[in-house]
Design goal:
By secondary structure, the chain is mainly α. It has one domain. It is built from five helices and no strands. About 15% of the residues are buried.
């Protein structure tokens, strides 16, 4: 039995939605990874500049000290913003979405049923809910964690 035009439209809409979400997750993963690298390079660059400037170029103590203070501040920001963990989260989400896309396009009968398409949509909803819980638990900025040392 040939699938109805409405069913084909649902499948196409779901495929399009997955494609957009896959591209978005991949872009966010790459961006967070690049931020992580940029912060690491900035911290190392400040440290090297302070050392080299102080030893070889007779940089004043104030300038060298000012540069030397930046690496731990940069590291503090990078660690608390969790760029690398966020990158990994986005890549895992992208992988989950890619799996759903594969199931929708290649692991269904030639004439899929409404239930089989709905099951992929339901799994996407579950993936989003699980990913959001992980984000809230592990990746959101948590001021209470920063303040714990002061109690």
């Amino acid at each position: 039995m040939e699938p109805s035009p409405e069913l084909l439209k649902r499948k196409q809409d779901l495929t399009n939605g997955l494609d957009v979400a896959i591209r978005r997750s991949g872009a966010h993963a790459r961006l967070n990874h690049r931020f992580s690298i940029a912060f690491m390079v900035a911290a190392l660059g400040c440290s090297v500049a302070a050392g080299v400037g102080g030893v070889f170029f007779e940089m004043s103590g104030k300038k060298a000290g000012g540069l030397a203070v930046l690496p731990p501040l940069i590291a503090f920001v990078a660690v608390n913003l969790k760029f690398e963990s966020k990158s990994s989260w986005h890549y895992r989400k992208k992988d989950g979405l890619t799996t759903l896309r594969s199931r929708l396009l290649y692991q269904q009968p030639e004439s899929p049923s409404a239930d089989s398409i709905a099951s992929v949509a339901r799994e996407w909803d579950e993936l989003n809910a699980t990913a959001q819980k992980e984000w809230d638990r592990d990746l959101s900025l948590n001021w209470s964690g920063l303040l714990r040392g002061n109690h």
